[in-house]
Amino acid sequence: MSVRFSIVIPAWNEEALLPRLLDTVDVARARFRHGADAVEVIVADNVSTDRTAAIARERRCTVARVERRRIASVRNGGAAVARGDVLAFVDADMRVHPDTFDAIDATLATGRYVGGATGVRLERWSPGILATWLLLMPWVVLLRMDTGVVFCRREDFVRIGGYEETRHFGEDVALLVALKRLGRARGQTLTRVTAAKALASMRKFDRHGDWHYFRLFAGVGISMLRDPQASTDFAQRYWYGDDR
After folding, report:
1. Reduced to 3 states, what is the DSSP secondary structure of residue 155?
2. Which of 28, 46, 89, 123 has the smallest set of CB atoms within 10 Å of its CB?
3. Which tens digit of pLDDT belongs to each residue from 165-179?
């Protein structure tokens, strides 16, 4: 059977959360109208020091080892071994909707869309998380650029050069901008497949506090006025530190 979907999961020391994501991926694969074998699961292991790679192999995932410690490189490393017509990317701390593959497949079949994302539901709420959501959602709706399971046709991913590996962060936004530009040239747009939202982890908020977006990111903005390197230093601590 031909592979329709390749779902790529970038992972660094994700032994605690990877199994619950894979459980939900298995449910979505089983419900896919073309059958579970039409979806391959790729764990892009960023040289984990725990059992991430072992768990992926035990679950019969394809494991792509990526040495460079940069999320864009890890995503690209997983995509490089993909065989599916459609690439989908999801972070290891998320959980996917049971109808993920059917919903994305039906969306792309219309020919109207170059790609997009499913969006997310949040695993918990608080005043600080609500305030952050209210800050970000107008931009999501206006630009039609969301998070969750991000997807596009593999040929289009190759055409735009994949994720920008010069970026320490924001590579997901840059990818969607590039796809949007590509789609515009042929009358296609980005879309949000909100009928199949992923469930997003709140571990950043658990770790840094429910109001941390306003405190940390405001501080980075001020620091960047004095030192442009501040954003890179912040990214290393916030996204690549040992304690996430």
Report:
1. helix
2. 123
3. 998 888 999 999 999
Say if CB 169 and CB 162 are below 8 A apart.
Answer: no
Contacts 24+ apart (CB under 8 A), 30-38: 31/98, 31/99, 31/101, 31/102, 32/4, 32/5, 32/101, 32/102, 32/105, 33/102, 33/105, 34/1, 34/4, 34/105, 35/1, 37/1, 37/3, 38/1, 38/2, 38/3, 38/4, 38/5, 38/101
Domain 5-127+146-204 sits in CATH 3.90.550.10 = yes
d(CA 188, CA 170): 23
Q: Which among 219, 243, 206 has a CA at the least distance from the CA of 234?
A: 219
Query: Which amino acid is residue 181, in one-letter code?
Result: R
* Radius of gyration in angstroms for the set of CA atoms belonging to the chain, rounded to a whole number: 18
pLDDT level of residue 224 (50, 70, 90 thresholds):
very low
Half-sphere exposure in the Cβ direction for 10 (13 Å, CA)? 25
